[in-house]
Amino acid sequence: MSKPDGTLLVNTGRPHGAGIHGVNPPIVRASTFVFDTLTAFEDASKTPFDVPFYGRVGTPTTFAFEAAMAELEGGHRAIATSSGVSAISAVLLGFMADGGHLLVVDTVYEPVRRFCTRMLARMGVETTFYDPAIGAEIADLIRDDTRLIYMESPGSGTFDVLDVPAIVAAAKARAVPTAIDNTWATPLFFRPLEHGVDVSIHAATKYIVGHSDAMLGVITTNAAVHDAVRRATQDLGACAGIEEVNLGLRGLRTLDVRLRRHAASAMQLAQWLQAQPGVARVLHPALPDCPGHAFWARDFDGAAGLFSVELTGGADAARQFIDALQLFRIGFSWGGFESLVLPVHLENRALPRWANTGALVRLQVGLEDPDDLQRDLAQALAVIAP
Ligand SMILES: *Cc1c(COP(=O)(O)O)cnc(C)c1O
């Protein structure tokens, strides 16, 4: 498959061929579709993910977004869900509902860790959190009852990049399926299914929607595991709202230009920050200080606009720095047009290796003029390292 690019983003998931078409597919708001005969209704029920049947199963707007994501990720099919977390929990339940052993990277997005240690634990699932640097040695952690290996690359907060091909090879040797959170890279910068991963998940809330105005998740699978994942999303009723799906589809049209601007601005700021007093380390996958940088250089086509900075002054300095920022606003999420900042919390991590990591601040670099953002960072650093 050729790499997804601006041309594919503009053309995918749109009506083509004969007839009169709006540039965008219509927004079909419906719970119910009606049929002239019972036979027509029964025929539709055989392919409910391709023709309109019932709103929870999908409308033509949903199908257009799902088709676009499947094409961009090089997958068999994609499934839209109500949020990134609903996409991830549906995948985990789809593989783990009978209990057994789950391997999850220790840099996982925090609500996913909670899903494992709360809900899945109560269902009898045992989760082992593995070191993001594990690579091929994950083979030593795979047990006879291991049902899934879950990855996130780069990981949340510390941006450790995984050796995905090595982990996938070890998983395949034991016939264990793999899933990954690909939110940071988007299909433009990393395509997990090309590396043999079975399931790629996005919080489309972030770069795909891109404007901080909708919650949306999407799961892309290969053919082998599709039915298992689809059953889970259907059993959970985890469907996406139609307006949200449309915002996801609209976001895709501009993803290439937005992401390249996020990427270039973040790179400028990360490199500049490296040389500033008060900064101990910049954890940005395209910079050598970031654990797994070599895997990023080998496997990815770009680095997105979210990274962390380790400050020398400790937690108090991090608080002062965050409060001093003006253009970087304090708030959850990322991937929208606006710059954001938050402290990174490592206290829930399972492995001891994080104990020596200093105070981390995560920056989401938005679409503002990067020189303005740099001035903002400079004035806030001057507060803590005068
Ligand atoms: C935000 C986020 C999610 C969750 O997405 P929601 O749409 O907020 O539920 C999942 N994974 C990563 C890496 C995220 O940053």
UniProtKB/TrEMBL annotation:
InterPro entries: Cys/Met-Metab_PyrdxlP-dep_enz, Cys_b_lyase_bac, Cys_met_metab_PP, PyrdxlP-dep_Trfase, PyrdxlP-dep_Trfase_major, PyrdxlP-dep_Trfase_small
GO biological process: L-cysteine catabolic process to pyruvate; transsulfuration
SUPFAM superfamilies (UniProt xref): PLP-dependent transferases
GO terms for MF: cysteine-S-conjugate beta-lyase activity; pyridoxal phosphate binding
Domain of life, source organism: Bacteria
Pfam families: Cys_Met_Meta_PP (PF01053)
Keywords on record: Lyase, Pyridoxal phosphate
Pathway assigned in UniProt: Amino-acid biosynthesis; L-methionine biosynthesis via de novo pathway; L-homocysteine from L-cystathionine: step 1/1
UniProt keyword S-adenosyl-L-methionine present: no
Membership in a protein family: Belongs to the trans-sulfuration enzymes family.
Name of the protein described by the UniProt record: Cystathionine beta-lyase
Organism: Ketogulonicigenium robustum
Organism placement in taxonomy: Bacteria, Pseudomonadati, Pseudomonadota, Alphaproteobacteria, Rhodobacterales
